[in-house]
Automatic annotation (TrEMBL), chain A:
<protein>
    <recommendedName>
        <fullName>Carbon monoxide dehydrogenase large chain</fullName>
        <ecNumber>1.2.5.3</ecNumber>
    </recommendedName>
</protein>
<keyword id="KW-0500">Molybdenum</keyword>
<dbReference type="InterPro" id="IPR008274">
    <property type="entry name" value="AldOxase/xan_DH_MoCoBD1"/>
</dbReference>
<feature type="domain" description="Aldehyde oxidase/xanthine dehydrogenase a/b hammerhead">
    <location>
        <begin position="32"/>
        <end position="141"/>
    </location>
</feature>
<dbReference type="Pfam" id="PF20256">
    <property type="entry name" value="MoCoBD_2"/>
</dbReference>
<dbReference type="GO" id="GO:0030151">
    <property type="term" value="F:molybdenum ion binding"/>
</dbReference>
<keyword id="KW-0186">Copper</keyword>
<dbReference type="InterPro" id="IPR000674">
    <property type="entry name" value="Ald_Oxase/Xan_DH_a/b"/>
</dbReference>
<dbReference type="InterPro" id="IPR037165">
    <property type="entry name" value="AldOxase/xan_DH_Mopterin-bd_sf"/>
</dbReference>
UniProtKB/TrEMBL annotation, chain B:
<feature type="domain" description="2Fe-2S ferredoxin-type">
    <location>
        <begin position="5"/>
        <end position="81"/>
    </location>
</feature>
<dbReference type="InterPro" id="IPR036010">
    <property type="entry name" value="2Fe-2S_ferredoxin-like_sf"/>
</dbReference>
<dbReference type="InterPro" id="IPR002888">
    <property type="entry name" value="2Fe-2S-bd"/>
</dbReference>
<keyword id="KW-0479">Metal-binding</keyword>
<dbReference type="InterPro" id="IPR036884">
    <property type="entry name" value="2Fe-2S-bd_dom_sf"/>
</dbReference>
<dbReference type="GO" id="GO:0046872">
    <property type="term" value="F:metal ion binding"/>
</dbReference>
<keyword id="KW-0560">Oxidoreductase</keyword>
<dbReference type="Pfam" id="PF01799">
    <property type="entry name" value="Fer2_2"/>
</dbReference>
<dbReference type="GO" id="GO:0051537">
    <property type="term" value="F:2 iron, 2 sulfur cluster binding"/>
</dbReference>
């Protein structure tokens, strides 16, 4: 009866379930300009908040004079740390177990740090008042280099007892935050000592910023009559924000309603809790009026969560045939003035220990030292799962360096070291259990698709032509095979601020057979309202078009940890499927009752339950839904609802093979991407259209990071990249056309086999672009050159290699 | 406080008259005074194009224009391009071809694209990429935006041919 008859096919297609490139339900409002973003909110009596920020990277705050600002017509209040201190709100906890100043408490630790918060009738008056606040600073020596910071006598965090351990164990120096280790140090050192070949390199992944097009912001509204606080904001984790607000403000959690309205991109930037949120809440409590705070772009780039800034010293050991025998990595992590990384509690360096990548490396060791400097705090996963991008970049560069050392083709070196299909589930030397993969198939498909052997021939001919002076352009072939670790995560080892990283879905089927599903996640462009309805459609047989998906309102949605780290599909998507199965189980009992047979005598078929062996006798989900509300069924409660809180048994491990073919002009340092091929394996594919869109977008963010985007500081700690003039975001003109492809290796432990995809293109894209640059110059002796590979830096590579004659 | 100026604007066919400080930015007039929250603020430095509107027939980034400079002008915002019942061809094409994700750049993107197709009704992919380079998107990688605009162009041209 499961034959795909045309009639049945039609019913399947009508659901728009799994595998359908369903058009997005979100788009009608967005294309009409009727989205509802936080800055669109307007309410009677709403006030505006704005910050006085430090021009210095390290300074004592001697005095703050707010008199002139207060005298300005329209200014309601100016808050300083002294005003917040009696409430205990001048500092707040960070997601990394540290604490952070809400407003400068005696000193500032990075340029742009919040010093005072002005509340005024409108945003123009607030901006005027910011200029009128007089702050007297005494400059202190600035540390912008993490290696220097670990040697310096200058103590950045005078609030911390240098002898006391931090949140993640002992500290070696007053500017040291933690040491985190994974793997077997002794065994790895022995492998390195005995290896035929050891390649060694420092791989720097520079500081950058997620820079969503919408900046961070919120509106806080304290209703003093009923004691309820409503907080709208750009929150990637609204439920966690509610708990944090409750813990730090003392307002009981049931009296706090957090709402994430439409969010204009997040990419990790909107995971953390920022001073603006705390000050706006306080301001609303003090004034009894709603208070809006929205960052401008400069504030966004200079003060809210940055990403990366990892100095990764690596050693990779291999036999002379190229079989990798060991990997060693020591990372110096620049965390800025406060440790405000967004990682699960037990993972202060995130999942950096996925740095053995796609390879069967029997012995490995990783150590990460976190360091305070006079830079902005943050360290979020910019479109990746907790430092996975750093890990992938590290191993994919080390493989290339090893290929140089061995004088081997880098594609072949990868192939002989891949974890084989029959090794899954695979235990990595650094502690993970990879769920599933078929790397060789993906790799061969990718190499064939681009005509790899021909490309290498063309490259060899180009080098000869270059040497003969016939061309000034080189050809780079950038290879990457990445393995991600996403879907954090199992509650047994993943929590944020003590909150287990499960996620949730609640479903209500309405009497007439349509439904609403609410989740603990929140879309920021991923199209959850479209795709989660598809998962449900396939699970419960109700068309996706008849299912509303709602997220982001903590008063109505079940508790969940939010959307980042590609966790929505692996965790909330699983919760959705599981809640759907609960609905189906009850529907089965109702159907059996209606058909007057035993529960076991009916089976689910697309959109109905049929009697086994007699498919002409059935009850559709629509009929069952109505019966749930109008029939008194013995032993069954009325209604048709379910909720599932899903604690994933493991992470998921999406992977992919990316190849970038790049032309490089040796004399100008300009590059042109001739071809970019991206093969992704994210397990079961829910909506291919959305997957491809995610890949295009993630690759473009990767292009930006690899080829020009950075948060740079001078030695005074001045942020040199505070506007979009200096901080590179590619336009349509600079962005290449991408070719997408896929294989499907479902996750064995996920209810529908899906793994998550949104971040893969950033994780795999960065090494693909960077490796293309390196590969172009390999024949001329280049081993490692730090990103971003902007025109100047590429020109400099050529110049340093003596290619300018 | 500088003296307020008397401003007259026509936005999406509707005329407005009010007093505004000379420093009031056009984007704030639209969003906060006229409640047209389709155009967004992404950078306040003319780079991102989320605030793009049409002023007297030209694409303008309204975050860096004073409302005083637009005095007397005729403006179109995303809200004036189409309605939910009768969407603009571009509004339909962006949905059909997945030309948007978070939606924040979309109003500016579509508003700019509508001008681009007036300036050049038959653009190549390259001309679209060049003509849209003033509008940044962080989600889509532009590929499907280009596809959407190409599709809208051919639909508009087909409609024009049918009418002739």
């Amino acid at each position: 009866m499961n034959d795909m008859t045309p009639e049945r096919e039609e019913r399947v297609a009508g659901l728009k379930g799994l595998g359908c490139s369903r058009k997005r339900v979100e788009d009608a409002r967005f294309t009409q300009g009727k989205g509802n973003y936080v800055d669109d909110l307007k309410m009677p009596g709403m006030l505006h908040g704005d910050f006085v920020r430090s021009p210095y990277a390290h300074a004592r705050v001697k005095s703050i004079n707010t008199e002139a600002a207060m005298a300005l017509d329209g200014v309601v209040a100016v808050l300083t740390a002294a005003d917040l201190a009696p409430l205990g709100l001048h500092w707040m906890p960070t997601l990394a177990g540290d604490k952070q100043m809400v407003l400068a408490d005696g000193k500032v630790l990075f340029q742009g740090q919040e010093v005072a918060y002005v509340i005024a009738r409108d945003r123009y008056i607030a901006a005027d008042a910011v200029e009128l606040v007089e702050v007297e600073y005494e400059e202190l020596p600035v540390l912008t280099d993490p290696f220097e910071a670990l040697k310096s006598d200058v103590v950045l965090r005078e609030d911390l007892d240098p002898a006391a351990p931090g949140a993640h164990g002992p500290r070696k120096h007053p500017n040291h935050i933690f040491t985190w280790e994974a793997g077997d140090r002794e065994a790895t050192e022995q492998v390195l000592a005995e290896a035929d070949v050891v390649a060694e390199e420092m791989v720097y992944y520079h500081r950058t910023h997620p820079c969503p097009l919408e900046t961070c912001g919120c509106v806080a509204s304290m209703d003093k009559v009923n004691g309820k606080l409503t907080l709208w904001g750009t929150f990637q984790a609204p439920h966690a924000i509610r708990t944090v607000v409750s813990l730090i403000s003392g307002i009981e959690e049931h009296n706090i309603r957090v709402i994430s309205p439409d969010i204009g991109g997040g990419f990790g930037n909107k995971v953390g809790a920022y001073a603006g949120y705390v000050c706006s809440v306080v301001a609303s409590i003090v004034t009894g009026q709603p208070v809006k705070w929205v960052e401008d772009r400069m504030e966004n780039l200079m003060t809210t969560a940055f990403a990366r800034d990892y100095w990764m010293k690596g050693k990779i050991a291999a036999t002379k045939e190229g079989k990798i025998t060991g990997l060693w990595c020591h990372t110096t992590a620049d965390h800025g003035g406060f440790d405000a990384c967004a990682d699960p509690t037990k993972f202060p360096a995130g999942f950096m220990n996925i740095c053995t990548g796609s390879y069967d490396i029997p012995t490995a060791y990783l150590a990460v030292d976190g360091v305070y400097t006079n830079k902005a705090p943050g360290g979020v996963a910019y479109r990746c799962s907790f430092r996975v991008t750093e890990a992938a970049y590290f191993i994919e560069r080390m493989i290339e360096v090893l290929a140089i050392e061995l004088n081997m083709d880098a594609a072949e070196l990868r192939r002989i070291n891949f974890i084989r299909k029959d090794q899954f589930p695979y235990q990595s030397a650094l502690g993970w259990e990879y769920d599933s993969g078929d790397y060789h198939t993906a790799w061969d498909k990718a190499l064939n698709a681009v005509g790899y052997d021909d490309l290498r021939k063309e490259q060899a001919e180009r080098i000869e032509a270059f040497k003969r002076g016939e061309t000034r352009k080189l050809l780079g072939i950038g290879l990457t095979h990445f393995t991600e670790i996403v879907g954090a995560g199992p509650v047994k080892n993943c929590d944020i601020l003590g909150l287990g990283m499960f996620d949730s879905c609640e479903i209500r089927i309405h009497p007439t057979g349509s439904a609403i599903a609410r989740l603990g996640t929140i879309s920021q462009g991923q199209g959850h309202a479209t795709t989660f309805a598809q998962i449900l459609a396939s699970e419960i047989g109700i068309p996706a078009d008849s299912i509303t998906v709602e997220e982001g309102d903590t008063d109505t949605a079940p508790y969940g940890l939010g959307t980042y780290g590609s966790r929505s599909t692996p965790v909330a998507g699983a919760a959705t499927a599981m809640a759907g199965r609960k609905i189906r189980a009850k529907a089965q009992m109702i159907a059996a009752y209606l058909l007057e047979v035993h529960d076991d005598d009916v089976e689910f078929d697309v959109d109905r339950f049929v009697i086994k062996g007699a498919p002409e006798r059935f009850k559709t989900m629509k009929e069952i839904a109505f019966a749930a509300y109008n029939q008194a069924i013995p032993g069954i409660e009325p209604g048709l609802e379910a909720v599932s809180y899903y604690d994933p048994p493991n992470m998921t491990y999406p992977f992919g093979a990316y190849i970038c073919v790049m032309e490089i002009d040796v004399d100008t340092g300009e590059h042109q991407i001739r071809q970019f091929y991206a093969l992704d394996d994210c397990g079961t594919r829910i909506n291919p259209m959305i997957i491809e869109g995610q890949v295009h977008g993630g690759l473009t963010e990767a292009l930006a990071i690899a080829m020009g985007q950075e948060i740079a500081y001078d030695e005074m700690g001045n942020c040199k990249t505070g506007t979009l003039m200096d901080f590179f975001l590619p336009t349509a003109w600079e962005t290449p056309h991408y070719t997408t492809d896929h294989t499907v290796t479902p996750s064995p432990h996920h209810p529908i086999g899906a793994k998550g995809v949104g971040e893969s293109p950033n994780v795999g894209g960065v090494p693909a672009f960077s490796n293309a640059v390196h590969d172009a110059f390999r024949a001329f002796g280049l081993r490692q050159s730090h990103m971003p590979h902007d025109h100047w830096r590429i020109w400099k590579i050529a110049d340093d290699l003596g290619l300018h004659g | 406080m500088p003296k307020k100026m008397h401003i007259e604007l026509t936005v999406n066919g509707q005329s407005h008259e009010f007093l505004a400080e000379p420093r009031e930015l056009l984007i704030h007039t639209l969003r906060e005074r006229l409640n047209l929250t389709g155009p967004h603020i992404g950078c306040e430095t003319s780079h991102c194009g989320a605030c793009t509107v049409i002023v007297n027939g030209k694409s303008v980034k309204s975050c860096t224009m004073f409302v005083a400079q637009a005095n007397g002008a005729d403006l179109t915002t995303i809200e004036g391009l189409g309605t939910p019942d009768v969407p603009h061809v571009l509004q339909t094409a962006f949905r059909e071809h997945h030309g948007l994700q978070c939606g924040f750049c979309t109003p500016g993107m579509i508003t700019r694209a509508s001008k681009l197709l007036e300036e050049n009704p038959n653009p190549t992919e390259e001309e679209i990429r060049f003509g849209m380079a003033g509008n940044l998107c962080r989600c889509t990688g532009y590929q499907n935006i280009v596809k959407s605009i190409l599709a809208a162009a051919s639909e508009l041209n087909a409609a024009k041919e049918a009418a002739e």
